[in-house]
Specification:
This protein has about 240 residues and is an alpha/beta fold. The chain has helices spanning about 40-45, 45-50, 50-55, 80-105, 120-130, 165, 170-175, 180-190, 200-215, 230-240, and strands spanning about 5-10, 15-20, 25-30, 60-65, 110-115, 135-140, 190-195, 220-225.
């Protein structure tokens, strides 16, 4: 399995960013890390290894990107308005720097957004905000509303909601979405969500699924037995849903 390391000084973020690429061909998968995790963690946790047969068969090419959640969404020292602005700079990094790299390395037409836990938020939020760029999105054990506390997971914006927070909260903007451009692209997007029936984010997944259904946006919601918020579960999930 081909493995490449890339790094550069990001103009969008004004800092050095790193990522790993696995494979040479197939659908280009932007794989977002979990909460405050790093670009190498999926490899260390055996999630990349679980996909080895499909990567080596040329079905998938993984781009394991890094996170700046500690500087943005999880940076409690900053005002929430500053946090969401840093997050939007991260989005620019992905769209203006990482996506062009994927096109340079691999001409495959399909771009996939995927992630686990906080990475699922990044994947789903990005794909829902830019559905014309993606063919598929996979959210595993994800939370899609950072403005609501869920079990031991706090409201990351401490009650603050502005337009940018709203537009980066799928559970908030999907019910109000009436723009035909976005709806048409969302309705052709291959959407898969998976969560355990004992996970803290189960209810949020059910809510988002209902919201998508009400907008006639086809999707799949898979509910696993027990608590499925772990690398062991993700090793199985990626083979089923990516």
């Amino acid at each position: 399995m081909r493995r490449e390391y890339h790094d550069w000084l990001s103009p969008a973020l004004d800092r050095r960013m790193e990522l790993l690429v696995f494979g040479e061909a197939g659908a280009r998968v932007l794989f977002f890390p979990t909460r405050r995790a790093r670009f190498f963690d999926y490899e260390n946790w055996g999630v990349v290894e679980a996909l080895r047969p499909r990567i080596e068969a040329g079905e998938l090419q993984l781009y394991c990107v890094d996170s700046i959640d500690g500087e943005s969404l999880y940076c409690s020292e900053k005002h929430p308005a500053e946090r969401i602005q840093r997050h939007l700079q991260y989005e620019r990094y992905i769209l203006e720097e990482v996506v062009p790299l994927t096109r340079q390395l691999n001409p495959h037409i399909c771009l996939v957004a995927a992630g686990c836990s906080m990475g699922a938020f990044h994947a789903v939020n990005l794909a829902f905000r830019h559905p014309d760029l993606f063919g598929k999105v996979v959210g595993l054990s994800g939370r899609y509303d950072l403005t609501q506390p869920m079990a031991s997971f706090r409201d990351l914006f401490q009650g603050y909601v502005d337009e940018d927070v709203y537009l980066n909260t799928p559970s908030r903007f999907i019910p109000q979405l009436d723009h035909e451009f976005y709806l048409a692209h969302l309705r052709r997007l291959d959407i898969t969500l998976a969560v355990g029936n004992e996970d803290a984010f189960l209810e949020n997944n059910l809510v988002l699924s209902q919201q998508l259904q009400e907008k006639h946006i086809d999707h799949q919601l898979h509910i696993w037995n027990g608590e499925a918020h772990s690398p062991l579960a993700w090793q199985s999930m990626v083979n089923l849903y990516l």
